[in-house]
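In this section we walk through a basic example: taking a raw amino acid sequence and producing a predicted 3D structure, encoded as discrete structure tokens. The instruction is simple. Fold the sequence below.
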Amino acid sequence: MQAAHDNGSVVWILRQNFAFFCSSMYADTQSIRDAFLFERREKEEGTMDTQSMQQSKIDFSSFPAKAIAVITDPVGFYRNMPRTGGLLEPLVFAIVLSLTGIIIQIILGGLFGLGTFTFGSLWFLILWPILVTLFSFVGAGILYGIWALMGSQHSFETAYRSMAYMTAIFPVTAVLSVIPYLGTIVSTAWAAYILIVASIEVHGIKPNTAYLVFGGIGLLLILSNVSTEYGARRVSGQLEGAGKSREGIEDMTPEEAGKAVGEFLKGFEKGAGEKEATQ
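The resulting token sequence is shown next.
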């Protein structure tokens, strides 16, 4: 009986030790697993932080090379353009390049007598980054909708990047703007061509579809812009002529001014009488 009791005690002790050993192994395994998961989570968060820092870092020194690539080789640029990478860098690119174009226009306007730099122009330059930010997102939203209807599967971010890098041509089109009508036609057609290239190389749109859609939009914009420029130049010419006439009247004596006004009224009455006769 004593031997049986001793054997039972030994078995009980072995069983307890085995249970303690198993529980210790389980605890150690859980600790190792938790440490592994913690290390993995730290690495993932570190990678995300690194990517976020890379996206927020803007390489201004790359802007000239990107602008030249868009101007000289748009097909190669858009074919290799990263589809993702954040919105900040392309937004700043658009602000810098478009602002450069505006400054060139102001300088050329002063040289060719197309305008003068005023206090309003200064405020316009100050507000320009805000305007570019607002209208770039609106424009990208419109293009995103058009590309989606054309079959693109890319995100709004890709659409925004495609549009933002178009501003590389702004400094060149600013120079072309001093040429009446031709500058407007070339600038609009160039922008439409870049949209066609972006549609094909980035969004995977068929060439025929891209040329049909954006070629048609470009043609409508050319007609609209040329008509607007014609009207603006006509009004400007009339205002300039009115200003010269006013200066001439101010230089006249009272008798000469009265005579000029009388001749104007006679001509007006004669024109009105001829109109009534024809009716």
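Looking at the output, two observations stand out. The first helix runs from residue 2 to 56. The chain has two domains: 1-57, 60-236. In the next section we compare this with other chains.
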